[in-house]
Every structure is written in C-alpha cells, then in structure tokens.
Write a structure and sequence with these properties.
By secondary structure, the protein is mainly α. Helices cover 66% and strands 0% of the residues.
C-alpha cells in the first residue's frame, strides 16, 4: 500500500472514532417525513422565482457582494455567540437580516449566513457544555423567539440547537455503542427540531438555512431517497448558490447512510455540470472534500472523484472567493491522498505551521504528510 492511500485511510478511521463530527446517526425511520416534505414544498413558494432562472443568474452579479467580511470566521462566530449570551436580540436580528440579504461570504466561500447559525446553535461552553448549560441556551433562544415573534432566525437556531443536543445524547461512538436511552433522547430531540421548523415555516420571513436544518432532520430520521432528493431540489431552487446544500446531500448519499458506492461522486459530477462554469467546479471541490473525509475507513466512495477536476475546483475557489486556511488544508490532504507531490508541496508552503485539526487530527499526521510531499 502506498503512503497516500494508507495515510487517507488512517485519517478517516481517526475521524470516525472522534465522533459525530462527520455525520449524524439515524434514529427513526419516516416518522414525520410525509408531513415534513409537504412543508418543504410550500416553504419558499410565495417568493420563489424558479430554479432554472436562479441557476442561470450571471456569475458576476453573485460575485459583487461575495467577500464582504473584515472579520475572520471565528471572530464573527464569537461575536454572534456573545450577542446571544448578552440577549442582544436586536443585534442578532440585524446580523441575520444582513447576512441573508447580502449573501456575503468569507474568504474560502463560506456564507456569512452559515457562520451566523454556527455562532448561535451551541452553548458558549461548546463541547464541554453540561445539561444545565444547554438549559440556559434553550431558555435564551426561546426568549429571543418571544421578543421577536416574526423572527425566522430565532426558531431556525432553536431547531438546529435541538439537533446538536440530540448529538450529545447519542454520544461519540459507533451506533452499536449507543444506549437505548441515548437513541430515545436522540429521536425525541430530532422530533423537537422538526416541530420547531414547522413553526418557522408559518412565518412570513424565510431563510435558506431552514432547508439546511431540514436536511439534518432528514438524515437523522432516515428519510427515503425520493424525499431527501425532493428536499434538496427545493432547497437549491430557493437559493442555488448556498453550496452547503450540496455538501449535505452528498453526505446523505454516502454508503454509510443511504447511498451506494460511488453515488456521491456521481452526484458531484452531475451537479457540477448542471451548475456549470467556475461555480460548478467550485461545488465539485466542496463535495469532494466532504467525500474524502468520510468515516468508514475506506475511500471506495471517492474512487469516481477525479483528481484533475478537484484541482480545477480548488482553482475556481480561489478565482471566485479566495482561499482560507481550512480549504487549503483540505486541498493538501486530498493532494497527498492523490499522490500529487507538486500540488501538496505548494499547499503546504501556503499553510506553513498553521495546520487545521479538523483535517489532520494530530500534528504527527500533518508532519508525516509534509515529509512525504517533500520527497521527490
């Protein structure tokens, strides 16, 4: 076995043992899917101009306000978290409206709207949060929803928080290590998320992230493929450039969840061609970076992802949105797995010592990969 394939497989096994960072586990089958898919069909209809019209929107128009952030992702996320802790609901509403209206992104392409929700859907204590911390967090979110009755953001944040709390109940091990109580709590909290999204759907104010959270519900509840596909299509009809939708659906298609070997890669090819241009290439890179991080210990699902197209996608990322440290780390990881010394060397030169833990998991993995890249 050559180093790149052995290296990639070892990282995937490490990622799986670290928990649910790769994906959520299924707890129920089809409990609410039929009623929820009808909500999905109705959610964006009053203002939805149609999928084809949006996909054909000139790229230059979408780029005009793409990179509008002076903060880093971490600084912005922390500021949103501080607003929530301080119960500064006016500032939260202002930030949500700005992120939604501007469609702005951080360098690396991540939507500001996505990072907004990352800042308000976990207690400030993060992974160390106790049940008491979660209680305070939920009370604050409910106070926000009460203070702003028309706020989509408050209810969507509450729904995503229920899902994160469900992950806490499930724990970090393989499915066969989860207790009956853990599965019961997981299902109950997933159902709370679904009912909260149903409440949010009744509001006049709409938000693309509503679909993202519903995709999380669909994975957790084990929706059948036709329903998950319809959810995805409705999501991209509402906002086709919110690339996080594509990553979520590719995750659903991994063999460890609901897909067959190579299905996620085939989806990457199909959707890249459907979008077209640099944006389509960028989405291919994003899906590839997710598939290459799967947790089942072998990379058979990535066999039909083509390294030259991944490189084109990475170049398109730089052209459209610039690079971020995370995305460069992901590219370096994939370059090593592909056995591309030149691409890996270039990426490591940019990274320097600023390795990303979510990609490499340990400094030893990172240093081993760098040493390999330096050998010609």
């Amino acid at each position: 076995m050559n180093f790149p394939r052995r290296f990639a497989a070892s990282l995937m096994l490490i990622g799986c043992s670290m928990a649910i960072s790769c994906a959520r586990a299924q707890a129920v089958k089809q409990s609410d899917a039929s009623s929820l898919i009808e909500l999905v069909r109705q959610y964006g209809r009053p203002t939805q101009p149609g999928k084809d019209a949006q996909i054909q929107e000139p790229l230059e128009k979408s780029q005009a306000s793409s990179i509008a952030n002076t903060e880093t992702e971490g600084q912005y996320r922390s500021r949103m978290a501080a607003y929530l802790v301080d119960k500064n609901f006016d500032q939260l509403e202002k930030a949500a409206h700005e992120a939604r209206a501007s469609k702005s992104r951080f360098p690396g392409g991540v939507w500001t709207l996505y990072m907004f929700y990352q800042g308000v859907t976990n207690p400030i204590a993060g992974d160390q949060a106790s049940d008491s911390d979660w209680g305070v967090h939920f009370a604050t979110l409910k106070a926000w929803a009460s203070a702003e009755p028309g706020s989509a953001a408050a209810r969507i944040a509450l729904a995503e928080s229920y899902l994160n709390y469900a992950d806490k109940a499930r724990g970090s091990g393989y499915a066969n290590t989860v207790s009956d109580t853990g599965w019961k709590l997981y299902a109950e909290r997933n159902a709370l998320a679904a009912s909260t999204l149903a409440e949010a759907a009744q509001l006049k104010e709409k938000c693309p992230y509503w679909y993202e959270v519903m995709q999380h519900v669909a994975l957790g509840q084990g929706w059948e493929k036709p329903q998950a596909k319809e959810l995805f299509e409705q999501a991209v009809a509402f906002e086709p450039r919110f690339y996080h939708f594509y990553r979520e659906y590719a995750n659903y298609l991994l063999p460890k969840w609901n897909g067959e070997e190579g299905e996620a890669g085939a989806f990457a090819e199909e959707i890249s061609n459907r979008i077209g241009g640099p944006e389509g290439k960028f989405v291919y890179f994003e899906i590839a970076s997710l598939v290459r991080c799967q947790c089942d210990g072998d990379d058979s699902s990535a066999d039909n992802l083509y390294w030259p197209k991944i490189k084109e996608g990475y170049a398109a990322l730089g052209q459209l949105y610039g690079y971020s440290n995370l995305k460069t780390n992901r590219f370096a990881h994939m370059a090593v797995a592909a056995g591309d010394h030149d691409a890996a060397q270039h990426a490591f030169a940019v990274i320097g010592d600023d390795w990303d833990h979510s990609v490499w998991h340990s400094s030893q993995n990172f240093e081993n990969a760098k040493l390999w890249a330096d050998r010609q």
